């Protein structure tokens, strides 16, 4: 009888050890999954966390895309930056409406486009600028009350921290702005991170 009880106890102990081993494996699996989930959650939270100025995510953005237009008429001074005040798209928050410039978040190839429409009877002479160096000059003829448009599209290799904006070449140029017609615009898109 003792022998039968020992066999039963041995069987019971073996079953319990197998269950304990199974529980240990399950606990380790859950710990591994929780650690992975925690790491993913931390990465997600880090990605969503913003810098003090509330504009640029701490983790580097992979895509930058912006388009902004002008809502009102502007008479430009010499080298005055155009502050496109109607932001249509600003993925990555790289376009700054307060200063009218695009701040490059990462080194890469970017497509930059400018479209302008003169105020009737005014010529327009604009410059696309990178860090105070003129990249392109654009001219639109508006004599005799005429209106005309201009456009410039470039693919540029830009460095992190570069600033790109549009400005008037000299004073007296006037461009037309409208809340309903997006005839004066500044846009950019990251094509490739380098």
Using only C-alpha atoms, the radius of gyration works out to 31 Å
Spatial sequence of strands, sheet with the most strands: 3-1-12-6-9
Give the topology string: H per helix, E per strand: HEEEEEEEEEEEE
Question: What share of the residues lie within helices?
Answer: 10-25%
Under the CATH scheme, which architecture of the largest domain would be assigned? Sandwich
- Main CATH class of the largest domain: Mainly Beta
Largest sheet: 5 strands, antiparallel
As for the CATH topology of the largest domain, it is Jelly Rolls
Task: Report the average pLDDT across residues.
Answer: 80
Number of helices: 1
Q: What is the 3D form?
A: rod-shaped
- Rounded to the nearest angstrom, the distance between the terminal CA atoms is 80 Å
Number of strands: 12
Contiguous runs where pLDDT drops below 50 for at least 5 residues: 36-54
SS-based structural class?
alpha+beta
Strand residues, percent: 35-45%
Query: How many distinct domains?
Result: 2
Describe the 3D structure:
The chain has one helix spanning 2-48, and strands at 65-69, 74-75, 86-91, 95-96, 101-103, 108-117, 124-130, 133-140, 149-158, 163-168, 174-175, 185-193. Residues 36-54 have low confidence and may be disordered. With 194 residues, the chain is α+β, with helices and mostly antiparallel strands. The radius of gyration is 31 Å and the shape is rod-shaped. 22% of the residues are buried. The protein folds into 2 domains: 1-48; 65-193, Jelly Rolls (Sandwich), CATH 2.60.120.40. Helix content is 24%, strand content 36%. It has 1 helix and 12 strands, in the order αββββββββββββ. The strands form 3 sheets. Strands 3-1-12-6-9 form a 5-stranded antiparallel beta sheet, with no helix packed on it. Strands 4-5-10-7-8 form a 5-stranded antiparallel beta sheet, with no helix packed on it. A two-stranded antiparallel ribbon has the order 2-11. This is C1q domain-containing protein. Its main location: secreted. InterPro entries: C1q_dom, Collagen/C1q_domain, Tumour_necrosis_fac-like_dom. Residues 59-194 form the C1q domain.
